[in-house]
User: Which sequence fits this backbone?
């Protein structure tokens, strides 16, 4: 019996090769092989079409597909920046300065900082929106300029690059930042009519997250929902503007007392628990000559001097003792900055 490994002729009956020790069981095993057979349809196609012609057509189609797809991918491929430049694209002009393009880098950086500062200081106004859009355009242009300088860029690739850069910047930076500003720390309030101490077209910024971790403090100028007693509307005024109702549902005034305080207003001077303070409500002239209020433990004292009800009930002591007690949940945020008009731009104190 011949060994299938070393071809050594062994004596019959042995189980392993005497030379190499390989098992001789496989040499006597019968292997039943049934190769797959072509179907009837395949046989008919082979008879009708010559094999060489079929294979040549198949190879030509595959090669043409590879050529077309590789060309499209090459034309639409976005050149990625170098590792040292990629992390610097977050600031317009920084990547240019890193690459040695100082004039272009400083141009992008100065233009972006100017527009960003203008957008933030005029937030909530038309000028602020325009400046924010231009700042976004400068940032996107700086990134595109860096990518273009990484290699030759043809027109289709440039359009794809512009779309990709704009989407990435908007999704990663500007959309989250705009949401935080518009619904969190810089909510703009536009006055549609004169509401002393604010005038028509004044834009005031509200920080809605100011009390996320802390509680209101004495002297804070806050936005709050007035009680039903503080929503007295002068019937002679009616609706001066479609946004008139806003002034009656959300007011801005100063926190005078905290829960448990004893507040006394006497002759234009305010004392809290017997200690005089230097500040007062925003329109102290609307208060009666004397007030004594003990603030409950579940409320804050915010005398609504800016409301229409205060102008109509200036001498009614019971009105102030009722309308001035505001639950903590009705204090919406801190009013801290007036951004428009530019001649009245200043912090609210």
Assistant:
């Amino acid at each position: 019996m011949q060994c299938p490994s070393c071809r050594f002729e062994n004596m019959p009956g042995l189980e392993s090769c005497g030379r190499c020790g390989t098992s001789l069981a496989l040499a006597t095993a019968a292997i039943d092989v049934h190769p797959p057979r072509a179907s009837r349809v395949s046989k008919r196609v082979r008879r009708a079409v010559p094999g060489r012609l079929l294979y040549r057509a198949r190879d030509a189609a595959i090669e043409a597909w590879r050529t077309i797809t590789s060309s499209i991918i090459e034309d639409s491929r976005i050149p990625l920046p170098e590792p040292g430049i990629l992390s610097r694209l977050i600031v317009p002009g920084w990547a240019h300065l890193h690459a040695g393009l100082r004039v272009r880098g400083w141009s992008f950086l100065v233009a972006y900082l100017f527009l960003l500062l203008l957008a933030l200081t005029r937030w909530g106004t038309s000028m602020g929106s325009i400046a924010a859009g231009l700042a976004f355009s400068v940032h996107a242009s700086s990134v595109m300029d860096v990518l273009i300088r990484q290699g030759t860029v043809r027109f289709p690739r440039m359009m794809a690059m512009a779309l990709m850069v704009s989407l990435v910047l908007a999704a990663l930076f500007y959309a989250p930042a705009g949401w935080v500003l518009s619904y969190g720390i810089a909510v703009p309030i536009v006055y549609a009519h004169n509401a002393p101490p604010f005038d028509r077209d004044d834009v005031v910024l509200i920080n809605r997250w100011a009390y996320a971790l802390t509680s209101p403090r004495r002297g804070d100028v806050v936005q709050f929902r007035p009680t039903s007693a503080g929503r007295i509307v002068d019937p002679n005024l009616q609706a001066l503007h479609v946004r008139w109702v806003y002034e009656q549902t959300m007011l801005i005034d100063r926190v005078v007392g905290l829960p448990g305080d004893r507040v006394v207003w006497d002759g234009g001077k305010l004392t809290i628990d017997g200690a005089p303070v230097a500040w007062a409500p925003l329109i102290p002239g609307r208060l009666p000559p004397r007030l004594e209020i003990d603030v409950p433990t579940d409320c804050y004292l915010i005398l609504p001097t800016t409301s229409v009800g205060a102008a109509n009930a200036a001498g009614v002591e019971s009105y102030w003792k009722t309308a001035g007690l505001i639950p903590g949940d009705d204090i919406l945020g801190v009013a801290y900055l007036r951004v428009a008009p530019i001649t009245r731009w200043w912090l609210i104190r």
The chain has three domains: 1-26, 83-184, 188-347. The chain is about 40% helix and 15% strand.
